[in-house]
Design brief:
Residues 16-111 form the Pyridoxamine 5'-phosphate oxidase N-terminal domain. Keywords: Oxidoreductase. InterPro entries: F420H2_bilvrd_red/Heme_oxyg, Pyridox_Oxase_N, Split_barrel_FMN-bd. One of its GO terms (molecular function) is coenzyme F420 binding. The protein is α+β, with helices and mostly antiparallel strands. It has a single domain, classed as Pnp Oxidase, Chain A. It has 4 helices and 9 strands, in the order ααββββαββαβββ. The protein has helices at 4-10, 12-23, 62-69, 96-101; strands spanning 28-33, 39-44, 46-49, 52-57, 72-76, 83-92, 111-126, 131-138, 142-148. Strands 1, 2, 3, 4, 5, 6, 7, 8 and 9 form a 9-stranded antiparallel beta sheet that branches. α1 (4-10) packs across α2.
Length: 149
């Protein structure tokens, strides 16, 4: 797993493109794992603070219970000009200093998480060449690019 900064260091162009996609809109889609193993999708906002991609939740949300039980998740940026997704393990920030560093209320009742990344994907279309372009990054493995008609 890797921090957002690790991603930026290993694949700066892809990290910048993925970040731009997330910053275009405020709300995105968070996928968590329900107790029975099925997926749950919820709206979520993300932010970039220091070395981390962080996101939060209101108190008592189902997604918080999901993440506390099994931190594996994925966040899909609001789709418009290309498709960006990140996945990894959510780590809840409970220490007031960590919460403040992530831009959350240090003593608030809301929940704050950082994402330890296991993958990032950017999908785009080259209209001129009629190609679907999929760029995939995994920590320590570089960027793999697939082009399909």
């Amino acid at each position: 797993m890797a921090s957002w900064r690790d991603f930026e260091n290993e694949a700066p162009e892809l990290a910048a493109a993925v970040k731009r996609r997330f910053e275009l809109h405020e709300s995105h889609v968070l996928a968590t794992i329900r107790r029975d193993g099925s997926p749950r999708v919820s709206g979520s906002e993300v932010a970039f603070h220091g070395a981390d991609l962080v996101f939060g939740s209101m108190p008592n949300a189902q997604k918080v219970r999901d993440l506390r039980r099994d931190g594996r998740c994925a966040i899909h940026a609001h789709p418009s000009e290309g498709d960006a997704k990140v996945s990894g393990v959510a780590i809840e920030l409970t220490d007031p200093a960590d919460r403040a560093a992530a831009g959350a209320d240090p003593t608030g009742e809301d929940h704050a998480f950082r994402l330890d990344l296991t993958a990032a994907v950017l999908t785009s279309v080259d209209q001129e060449q009629q190609l679907l372009i999929v760029e995939v990054w995994h920590p320590g493995q570089g960027v793999q690019v697939t082009k399909r008609r």
